[in-house]
Amino acid sequence: YGKNTIKFLRLHREGKKHFVKEVEVCAHLRLTSPQEYLEGNNSLVIPTDTIKNIVLVLAKKNGISTLEQFAIDICNHFMTTFCQVAYVKTYVQEAPWQRLYEDGVPHIHAFICVPDGIRFCEAEQCRNGPLVVFAGIKDLKLMKTTQSGFEGFYKNEHTTLPERHDRILCGELFCKWSYGECKDFDFDCIWKKIRECILEAFAGPPDCGEYSPSYQKTVNSIQMLVLSRVSQVQVIEVVLNNIFYDVVDMKNLGLNNDKEVLVPVEAPYGSCACTLGRK
Protein backbone atom coordinates (compact mmCIF):
# COMPACT_ATOMS: atom_id res chain seq x y z
CA TYR A 1 0.00 0.00 0.00
CA GLY A 2 1.12 3.58 -0.26
CA LYS A 3 0.58 7.14 -1.38
CA ASN A 4 0.41 8.15 -5.05
CA THR A 5 0.80 11.49 -6.87
CA ILE A 6 2.48 13.46 -4.09
CA LYS A 7 3.10 16.65 -6.07
CA PHE A 8 5.21 19.59 -4.94
CA LEU A 9 7.68 22.23 -6.08
CA ARG A 10 11.08 22.40 -4.36
CA LEU A 11 12.62 25.86 -4.58
CA HIS A 12 16.33 26.24 -3.85
CA ARG A 13 17.97 29.66 -3.56
CA GLU A 14 21.62 30.54 -3.99
CA GLY A 15 21.68 34.28 -3.45
CA LYS A 16 19.61 35.89 -6.19
CA LYS A 17 19.73 32.78 -8.39
CA HIS A 18 16.91 30.29 -7.94
CA PHE A 19 16.61 26.60 -8.86
CA VAL A 20 13.38 24.63 -9.13
CA LYS A 21 12.33 20.98 -9.26
CA GLU A 22 8.65 20.14 -9.51
CA VAL A 23 8.11 16.44 -8.89
CA GLU A 24 5.46 13.80 -8.46
CA VAL A 25 6.22 10.98 -6.05
CA CYS A 26 4.61 7.58 -5.45
CA ALA A 27 5.77 5.64 -2.40
CA HIS A 28 4.65 2.05 -1.73
CA LEU A 29 5.40 -0.17 1.24
CA ARG A 30 5.09 -3.86 2.01
CA LEU A 31 5.00 -4.77 5.70
CA THR A 32 6.41 -7.81 7.46
CA SER A 33 2.92 -9.01 8.41
CA PRO A 34 -0.34 -9.03 6.39
CA GLN A 35 -2.44 -8.64 9.55
CA GLU A 36 -4.09 -5.42 8.35
CA TYR A 37 -5.47 -7.36 5.38
CA LEU A 38 -6.31 -10.63 7.11
CA GLU A 39 -7.39 -9.47 10.56
CA GLY A 40 -8.13 -5.77 10.25
CA ASN A 41 -5.32 -5.08 12.74
CA ASN A 42 -3.79 -1.69 11.85
CA SER A 43 -1.13 -1.59 14.56
CA LEU A 44 1.75 -1.82 12.04
CA VAL A 45 0.17 0.36 9.33
CA ILE A 46 1.94 3.65 8.58
CA PRO A 47 -0.87 5.96 7.40
CA THR A 48 -0.54 7.17 3.84
CA ASP A 49 -0.84 10.73 5.13
CA THR A 50 2.29 10.06 7.18
CA ILE A 51 4.01 8.72 4.04
CA LYS A 52 3.14 11.95 2.23
CA ASN A 53 4.46 14.12 5.06
CA ILE A 54 7.72 12.14 5.23
CA VAL A 55 8.29 12.76 1.51
CA LEU A 56 7.71 16.51 1.97
CA VAL A 57 9.97 16.67 5.03
CA LEU A 58 12.77 14.85 3.20
CA ALA A 59 12.46 17.33 0.32
CA LYS A 60 12.75 20.19 2.80
CA LYS A 61 15.68 18.73 4.76
CA ASN A 62 17.72 17.07 1.99
CA GLY A 63 16.68 18.98 -1.11
CA ILE A 64 16.58 17.17 -4.46
CA SER A 65 20.08 16.97 -5.89
CA THR A 66 18.89 14.38 -8.44
CA LEU A 67 15.65 12.44 -8.80
CA GLU A 68 17.51 9.21 -8.20
CA GLN A 69 19.13 10.42 -4.99
CA PHE A 70 15.78 11.67 -3.69
CA ALA A 71 14.20 8.26 -4.39
CA ILE A 72 17.12 6.61 -2.58
CA ASP A 73 16.65 8.97 0.40
CA ILE A 74 12.99 7.97 0.64
CA CYS A 75 13.81 4.25 0.54
CA ASN A 76 16.55 4.63 3.13
CA HIS A 77 14.28 6.57 5.47
CA PHE A 78 11.53 3.96 5.54
CA MET A 79 14.00 1.08 5.87
CA THR A 80 15.93 2.63 8.73
CA THR A 81 12.98 4.17 10.59
CA PHE A 82 10.30 1.47 10.52
CA CYS A 83 11.21 -2.11 11.46
CA GLN A 84 7.85 -3.38 10.13
CA VAL A 85 8.70 -2.34 6.56
CA ALA A 86 9.85 -5.33 4.49
CA TYR A 87 9.95 -3.63 1.09
CA VAL A 88 9.75 -0.09 -0.24
CA LYS A 89 9.39 1.18 -3.79
CA THR A 90 9.58 4.82 -4.78
CA TYR A 91 8.72 6.41 -8.12
CA VAL A 92 9.67 10.03 -8.87
CA GLN A 93 9.01 12.01 -12.03
CA GLU A 94 9.94 15.60 -12.81
CA ALA A 95 7.96 18.33 -14.56
CA PRO A 96 10.07 19.63 -17.50
CA TRP A 97 10.93 23.11 -16.24
CA GLN A 98 13.98 24.68 -17.88
CA ARG A 99 15.69 27.95 -17.10
CA LEU A 100 14.56 30.81 -19.32
CA TYR A 101 17.16 32.46 -21.53
CA GLU A 102 16.90 35.99 -22.92
CA ASP A 103 19.33 36.83 -25.73
CA GLY A 104 21.46 33.90 -24.62
CA VAL A 105 21.63 35.08 -21.00
CA PRO A 106 20.21 32.71 -18.33
CA HIS A 107 17.52 34.31 -16.20
CA ILE A 108 18.16 34.11 -12.47
CA HIS A 109 14.60 33.20 -11.44
CA ALA A 110 12.40 32.63 -14.53
CA PHE A 111 11.64 29.23 -16.07
CA ILE A 112 9.75 27.76 -19.02
CA CYS A 113 8.00 24.39 -19.19
CA VAL A 114 9.26 22.56 -22.27
CA PRO A 115 7.45 19.28 -23.14
CA ASP A 116 10.47 17.44 -24.53
CA GLY A 117 10.13 14.29 -22.46
CA ILE A 118 9.52 13.62 -18.78
CA ARG A 119 12.35 12.33 -16.64
CA PHE A 120 11.52 9.69 -14.04
CA CYS A 121 13.20 7.16 -11.77
CA GLU A 122 12.40 4.27 -9.44
CA ALA A 123 14.21 2.90 -6.40
CA GLU A 124 13.26 -0.28 -4.58
CA GLN A 125 14.69 -2.27 -1.73
CA CYS A 126 13.88 -5.37 0.27
CA ARG A 127 15.07 -5.58 3.86
CA ASN A 128 18.56 -7.12 3.91
CA GLY A 129 18.64 -6.80 0.11
CA PRO A 130 20.39 -4.44 -2.32
CA LEU A 131 18.97 -1.05 -3.24
CA VAL A 132 18.12 -1.15 -6.97
CA VAL A 133 17.71 2.00 -9.07
CA PHE A 134 15.93 2.49 -12.39
CA ALA A 135 15.65 5.65 -14.45
CA GLY A 136 14.02 6.70 -17.68
CA ILE A 137 12.29 9.15 -19.95
CA LYS A 138 8.70 9.06 -21.16
CA ASP A 139 6.31 11.09 -23.34
CA LEU A 140 9.19 11.98 -25.67
CA LYS A 141 7.72 12.69 -29.11
CA LEU A 142 10.10 12.24 -32.04
CA MET A 143 9.64 12.65 -35.78
CA LYS A 144 11.66 12.43 -38.96
CA THR A 145 9.98 13.24 -42.27
CA THR A 146 11.98 10.88 -44.48
CA GLN A 147 14.63 8.14 -44.29
CA SER A 148 12.03 5.65 -43.09
CA GLY A 149 10.13 2.85 -44.78
CA PHE A 150 8.36 -0.46 -44.23
CA GLU A 151 8.72 -3.15 -46.90
CA GLY A 152 8.95 -6.91 -47.27
CA PHE A 153 6.55 -7.69 -44.44
CA TYR A 154 4.38 -10.82 -44.21
CA LYS A 155 1.21 -10.66 -46.32
CA ASN A 156 -1.96 -12.73 -46.51
CA GLU A 157 -5.60 -12.22 -47.49
CA HIS A 158 -6.09 -9.76 -44.61
CA THR A 159 -3.22 -7.46 -45.59
CA THR A 160 -4.21 -4.08 -47.05
CA LEU A 161 -1.19 -2.03 -46.00
CA PRO A 162 0.92 -0.95 -48.99
CA GLU A 163 4.69 -1.13 -48.89
CA ARG A 164 6.43 2.19 -48.44
CA HIS A 165 10.06 3.09 -48.95
CA ASP A 166 9.66 6.75 -47.93
CA ARG A 167 7.39 7.69 -45.04
CA ILE A 168 7.21 9.85 -41.95
CA LEU A 169 8.46 8.05 -38.84
CA CYS A 170 6.85 9.50 -35.74
CA GLY A 171 6.35 8.06 -32.29
CA GLU A 172 6.04 8.68 -28.58
CA LEU A 173 8.89 7.01 -26.75
CA PHE A 174 9.11 5.40 -23.32
CA CYS A 175 12.55 4.31 -22.17
CA LYS A 176 13.51 2.76 -18.83
CA TRP A 177 16.86 1.36 -17.81
CA SER A 178 18.32 -0.41 -14.80
CA TYR A 179 21.54 0.46 -13.02
CA GLY A 180 21.50 -2.79 -11.12
CA GLU A 181 22.77 -2.47 -7.57
CA CYS A 182 22.99 1.15 -6.47
CA LYS A 183 26.40 2.80 -6.72
CA ASP A 184 27.76 6.32 -6.52
CA PHE A 185 26.78 7.39 -10.05
CA ASP A 186 26.50 10.86 -11.55
CA PHE A 187 22.81 10.32 -12.35
CA ASP A 188 22.31 13.68 -14.09
CA CYS A 189 25.25 13.13 -16.42
CA ILE A 190 24.19 9.57 -17.28
CA TRP A 191 20.58 10.59 -17.95
CA LYS A 192 21.64 13.37 -20.32
CA LYS A 193 24.04 11.01 -22.13
CA ILE A 194 21.30 8.40 -22.63
CA ARG A 195 18.90 11.03 -23.92
CA GLU A 196 21.55 12.12 -26.43
CA CYS A 197 21.97 8.48 -27.53
CA ILE A 198 18.21 8.17 -28.05
CA LEU A 199 18.08 11.25 -30.26
CA GLU A 200 21.19 10.26 -32.22
CA ALA A 201 20.01 6.70 -32.88
CA PHE A 202 16.55 7.88 -33.93
CA ALA A 203 17.66 10.69 -36.24
CA GLY A 204 21.08 9.68 -37.55
CA PRO A 205 23.72 12.20 -38.74
CA PRO A 206 22.33 15.75 -39.00
CA ASP A 207 23.33 16.22 -42.65
CA CYS A 208 21.85 13.00 -44.04
CA GLY A 209 19.99 11.04 -41.36
CA GLU A 210 19.90 7.25 -41.23
CA TYR A 211 17.40 4.95 -42.90
CA SER A 212 14.98 3.06 -40.66
CA PRO A 213 13.41 -0.08 -42.20
CA SER A 214 10.95 -0.43 -39.30
CA TYR A 215 9.97 0.89 -35.89
CA GLN A 216 11.41 -2.33 -34.44
CA LYS A 217 14.86 -1.68 -35.91
CA THR A 218 14.80 1.88 -34.60
CA VAL A 219 13.99 0.59 -31.11
CA ASN A 220 16.91 -1.85 -31.25
CA SER A 221 19.28 0.80 -32.62
CA ILE A 222 18.49 3.01 -29.62
CA GLN A 223 19.16 0.18 -27.18
CA MET A 224 22.40 -0.92 -28.82
CA LEU A 225 23.80 2.62 -28.86
CA VAL A 226 22.97 3.17 -25.19
CA LEU A 227 24.51 -0.14 -24.10
CA SER A 228 27.64 0.52 -26.16
CA ARG A 229 28.22 4.00 -24.70
CA VAL A 230 26.85 3.88 -21.16
CA SER A 231 28.50 1.11 -19.17
CA GLN A 232 26.39 1.73 -16.05
CA VAL A 233 23.20 0.55 -17.82
CA GLN A 234 22.49 -3.15 -17.32
CA VAL A 235 19.06 -3.56 -18.92
CA ILE A 236 17.14 -1.14 -21.14
CA GLU A 237 13.47 -1.25 -22.10
CA VAL A 238 12.16 0.84 -25.01
CA VAL A 239 8.54 1.22 -26.09
CA LEU A 240 7.77 3.24 -29.22
CA ASN A 241 4.09 4.03 -29.74
CA ASN A 242 3.61 4.79 -33.42
CA ILE A 243 1.98 8.00 -34.61
CA PHE A 244 0.76 7.74 -38.21
CA TYR A 245 -0.09 10.53 -40.64
CA ASP A 246 -2.36 10.20 -43.68
CA VAL A 247 -1.89 12.35 -46.77
CA VAL A 248 -4.97 14.49 -47.43
CA ASP A 249 -6.54 13.76 -50.83
CA MET A 250 -6.96 17.17 -52.50
CA LYS A 251 -7.87 16.02 -55.99
CA ASN A 252 -11.44 17.26 -55.55
CA LEU A 253 -9.95 20.63 -54.68
CA GLY A 254 -7.92 20.68 -57.88
CA LEU A 255 -4.61 20.27 -56.07
CA ASN A 256 -1.84 17.67 -56.10
CA ASN A 257 -0.88 17.08 -52.47
CA ASP A 258 2.64 15.63 -52.63
CA LYS A 259 2.87 14.65 -48.92
CA GLU A 260 2.73 18.31 -47.91
CA VAL A 261 -0.51 18.33 -45.92
CA LEU A 262 -1.13 15.35 -43.63
CA VAL A 263 -3.44 14.57 -40.72
CA PRO A 264 -2.60 12.40 -37.71
CA VAL A 265 -4.38 9.07 -37.26
CA GLU A 266 -5.59 9.15 -33.66
CA ALA A 267 -6.51 5.45 -33.24
CA PRO A 268 -5.76 2.64 -33.44
CA TYR A 269 -2.00 3.04 -33.20
CA GLY A 270 0.82 0.54 -33.29
CA SER A 271 3.39 -0.10 -30.62
CA CYS A 272 6.83 -1.72 -30.63
CA ALA A 273 8.53 -2.83 -27.42
CA CYS A 274 11.79 -4.56 -26.59
CA THR A 275 13.89 -5.19 -23.49
CA LEU A 276 17.60 -5.74 -23.99
CA GLY A 277 20.29 -6.49 -21.42
CA ARG A 278 23.92 -7.42 -21.14
CA LYS A 279 24.96 -11.06 -20.95
Give an overview in words:
With 279 residues, the protein is α+β, with helices and mostly antiparallel strands. The protein is built from five helices and twelve strands. Helix 4 packs antiparallel against helix 5 (215-229). The radius of gyration is 23 Å and the shape is globular. The mean pLDDT is 95.
Largest sheet composition? 8 strands, antiparallel
Roughly how many Å is the radius of gyration?
A: 23 Å
CATH topology of the largest domain, which one?
Answer: Urate Oxidase
Regarding quaternary structure, what we see is: single chain
Poorly predicted ranges: none
Percentage of β-strand residues: 35-45%
Mean pLDDT: 95
CA-based shape:
globular
Number of individual domains: 2
Q: Strand pairing plus helix content: what structural class?
A: alpha+beta
Annotation field: number of helices: 5
User: CATH-wise, what's the superfamily of the largest domain?
Assistant: Urate Oxidase
Architecture per CATH nomenclature, i.e. the level-2 architecture of the largest domain: Roll
Order of helices and strands: EEHHHEEEEEEHHEEEE
How much helical structure, as a percent, in the residues? 10-25%
Function: Catalyzes the oxidation of uric acid to 5-hydroxyisourate, which is further processed to form (S)-allantoin.
Binding site for urate: 48-49, 150, 167, 216, 242
Keywords: Oxidoreductase, Peroxisome, Purine metabolism
GO molecular function: urate oxidase activity
